[in-house]
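Input (structure):
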């Protein structure tokens, strides 16, 4: 299954550069938590301060299981807390919600 999500960064070039640097050297525990959740591929793209994530998942993946596993993982909690320095919730989300799931509106077949 493919999921596409969006998130904003603070509009500060220095913070955006720091954020990109963190993602060049993602902690091994974070990569492991992503793969262990059933995410098989992940890419993040940036346009100015808007991020776009594409996730490919296997049949074992669910957002509910990933959220629960992340909450029980101290490394993920530390990473997520650190990333809030750079991230802004997109308006309209639930309190504390970071990445927002996007709706597919077109597919070329």
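Output (sequence):
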């Amino acid at each position: 299954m493919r999921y596409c999500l969006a998130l904003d960064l603070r509009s500060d070039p220095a913070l955006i550069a720091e954020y990109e640097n963190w993602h060049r050297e993602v902690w091994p525990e974070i990569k492991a938590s992503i793969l262990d959740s059933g995410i098989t591929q992940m890419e993040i793209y940036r346009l100015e301060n808007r991020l776009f994530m594409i996730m490919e998942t296997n049949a074992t993946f669910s957002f509910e299981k990933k959220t629960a596993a992340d909450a029980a993982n101290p490394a993920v909690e530390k990473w997520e807390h650190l990333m809030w320095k750079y991230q802004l919730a997109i308006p309209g989300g639930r309190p504390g919600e970071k990445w927002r799931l996007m709706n597919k509106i077109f597919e070329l077949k």
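Notes: Residues 40 and 57 are 5 Å apart (CA to CA). The beta strands are 2-9, 39-47, 50-57, 87-88, 100-101.
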